[in-house]
């Protein structure tokens, strides 16, 4: 069936009817179900996507594609604890799965465990130094945790790699601004983030760094403002930013200082 082949290839026909029919015709194909769920998310139907994945997991409860897809969906909809459990199920069978480790790191950060999240991202990079997604997530975590100099080092290397997505350069620019290199930040960003947004988020992130240097909590009182501005600024610069990454940037804004 042409619709099934297109859906498996990630090229569904326009509208939900044809992909829905293809998914209904192949209930035991995990890739088709995962692709259909992804399409439903893109058209603003996350609850329906979750239902599709849950039904598919009833048939194949340990399928890694389905577990990863539902984990990413739960991350995007605020279910960090559920997402973590799903990624851990993948890792129980595939300990070196970079996709599951990346998802695990994001979930841990959203749950207020930055050190464990950092370990997850560094574990990926130790085995696969060219993994841009892990480097981007690690760099984001570092600048949110008040370590912009380390973030610049990680993100600069990732940004030099061919085919690196624009969000890597966006995060590098934010880290440069947070470290006080306003000129470098503006050159890296090329106008993709408005100057007022850049100044707001840099000020908040510098506040985090000062709080750490003074022996205070990882999150200064200004840090949530900076993180929220970062999330808004990066999302405006790249409207198609995956929700999981936007949530990583915004995670600090949802955590009280005591949770960090």
Written overview of the protein:
By secondary structure, the protein is mostly helical. The chain has two domains: 70 residues, Serine Threonine Protein Phosphatase 5, Tetratricopeptide repeat; 131 residues. Helix content is 71%, strand content 0%. Helix 7 packs parallel to helix 9, helix 8 runs antiparallel to helix 9 and helix 11 runs antiparallel to helix 12. It is elongated and about 55 Å long. It starts with a helix and ends in a 10-residue tail after the last helix.
Mean pLDDT: 76
Structural Rg:
19 Å
Coarse structural class = mainly alpha
Head-to-tail CA distance between termini: 51 Å
Task: Describe the sheet with the most strands.
Answer: none
